[in-house]
Amino acid sequence: MSTPNLFLPFAVVDSNRNVPFSENIEVAVLLCVAESERKKKPGIFGRSEEVLTILCRLNYPLWAIPFEGASLLIDGMETVSNSILYFKPPDIEAFTEHLRRSTGVQELFCGALRSHLETFSKFASRTEMPIRGVIANKEYLSDIFDFIQDGKTLTKRSAESELNSLIPPKIDKVTAVDIAERFMKHLKKLQAEIKGLRFAIETVNGETEKHINRLRQERKQIQEEYEIKISKLKTEVNQRKVELERELNRKVEKITAVHKKEAETRLVEKKRRERELLKLEQKKSEYEKRKELRKTKGDKVGIVRWNVRLQNAQDQISTAKTKVKTLSDFIDRSNKEMDNTKKNLHNTYQKHLDAEEMRVKDLNSKKEADIANKEKEINELQGETTTIINKIERLIKRKQDRSSTIRETTIPWKAKAPTLIHLPLYLVCYKSKNKERYCLHLPALIRRDKGFAMKIRKTLRRRSLQSKISNLLKPRSKALEKLLKPFKEEAQSDSKVRKVLSRLGKSQNLLTTEKFKELVTAGMKKLEAEGWIKPEEKTAILETYAPKEPSR
What DSSP letter does each residue of 149-187 carry, written as one string? Predict the structure, then answer.
């Protein structure tokens, strides 16, 4: 099966240029460039003058290989080299198997999780795989894609000529396809590994969720069991509190009754004594009156008798008061003792009531502690799982970034089959007494003619031919210059490359073709008309490379 070919133009015309950049202008401009760069005068070290021996258009090979709806570009001359960094992921199968093996026992599962906290902290290993010729630089890819947009289809005859001008690629079609397949294989491997890492996340999530659900069920069961126990205990405590309060009331009533009975007896006796005291004091008062009466009558014997009676009465009154006071003190003391006894009873029974309440509080505290322990287990499981998942996701992100990088190593042009792209350049060879010198000229951008040329005509007239032509013919792409710089250097230093270029140059040399004189003459006239060269420069170049036939 034949290989599709895409031929790119050497020169792209500025959008403001009114005159097409035809083949004869292209040849004339390149001849001017070659002539302007030729070393003409002997050097101070005896360097001989150079002679232009070869001017030819060659095609630099690039391969476009279909790759996931785009195209992978491969440098046919292998002047660029790249490598794929492959990061081997941790053993996902061992990880998932370990979790599943441990899932039956929570302690084992938790231990398995903890043992894998560092498993996904980094990739297992790193390998660098060299890849030949793949163009990965985004700047290069962008500019080459722009060139491809300007690609053209040639007639069969001109296509054959272009094919003959192809620099033999170091990387052939089979190798280019193999390189693309290696890229695709690596991309699929990345996708499979991303899928495997996501499976690891699903596994750890799924297995952890089972244990968390189990723990939540256990937490719910603990809650329910404690609620039953607490409800039952509350009933017991309430009943016990009622019993304690009744018992307290009974004891208080009994103490009160005993005290009341004794107090009433003492109170009755006190009242009796107080009545006796009152009678004694009345009697004493009567005795005092009688004594005063005896005094008024001067009855000394009567006074003595009533004094004796008053003294007896006073003694009886003192005794009665002592007994009343003793009874009052006893009653007060008895009341205080009863109050203290009742208070002590209340304190004692309050402690019993508080102890009953504490039973409920203790059971609530135990419930909260047991639930908190389950909550802690859940949080630890979730935390360890989240730690592992976050680390796996970071590895996935790096794999995705690598996958995106590979996809970005393409151009948005879908080749239907492996296609050979012909990137044109001009080869110029100078020969001197001692050696040959090769120069390569890369695709260019052609400046506009009218208006621009008129404005700079006066300036251009005073400049060198090289300076003037460089204003017409501008390098199209700095990126392409960088891409082909190694090949240009090889053209100067590598004997094998020089040999190939020499063979191709001689077979495709424009200077020796029949139509060269016609092409360059027509092209020079157009350059003169646009003001890019002076008449004397045109004449000198034509006399050197396209002299008129002598008249017969």
Answer: HT-BPPPHHHHHHHHHTBPPPSS-HHHHHHHHHHHHHHH
Per-residue model confidence as pLDDT tens digits over 465-486: 777 777 777 878 888 889 999 9
Q: How far is the CA of 463 from the CAs of 352, 448, 455, 489, 543, in angstroms?
A: 119, 19, 14, 29, 21
- Whole-number pLDDT of residue 46: 52
Residue 551: per-residue pLDDT:
53
Per residue in 36-78, pLDDT (tens digit) is 888 877 655 556 788 999 999 999 999 999 998 899 999 999 9
At how many degrees (to 10) do helices 516-530 and 23-37 cross? 80
For residue 425, the SS3 value is strand
The CA-atom distances, in angstroms, between 294 and each of 84, 290, 300 are: 150, 6, 7
In sequence order, what are the beta bridge partners of 5?
Answer: 420
Q: Are 170 and 77 in contact (CB under 8 A)?
A: yes
Q: Tell me how far the alpha carbon of residue 337 is from its chain's centroid.
A: 81
Please give the torsion angle defined by the CA atoms of residues 484, 488, 493 and 497, in that order, rounded to the nearest 10 degrees. 80
Q: Is 128 exposed, middle or buried (0-12, 13-18, 19+ CB in 10 A)?
A: exposed
Count the alpha carbons within 13 Å of 432 in the hemisphere toward its beta carbon: 15
Amino acid identity at 214: R
Backbone angles phi, psi at 50, to 5 degrees: -90, 150
- What single string gives the DSSP state of each residue in 284-304? HHHHHHHHHHHHHHT-HHHHH
Specify the pLDDT at position 454.
46
Helical (H) or strand (E) element with 400:
helix 300-408
DSSP label at 532?
S
How crowded is the C-beta side of 503, counted as CA atoms within 13 Å? Answer: 9
Tokens for 380, please give them. Answer: 């630890």
Q: Would residue 437 be called left, alpha or beta, if left means φ above 0 and alpha means ψ between -120 and 50 degrees?
A: beta
In degrees, to the nearest 5, what angle opens at C-alpha 294 toward C-alphas 288 and 297? 145
Strands 473-475 and 444-446: antiparallel
The number of beta carbons lying within 10 Å of the beta carbon of residue 23 is 15
**For 223-238, what is the mean pLDDT?**
93
Which segments of 165-299 does DSSP mark as H helices, in order?
173-297
Q: What is the pLDDT of residues 508-536, one digit of tens each?
A: 999 998 889 999 999 999 888 888 888 88
Q: What are phi and psi of 137, to 5 degrees?
A: -65, 125
436-445 pLDDT per residue, tens: 888 999 888 7
Question: Helix 173-297 to helix 106-115 angle, to the nearest 10 degrees?
Answer: 120
3-state secondary structure string across 76-111: CCCCCEEEEEEEECCCHHHHHHHHHHHCCCHHHHHH
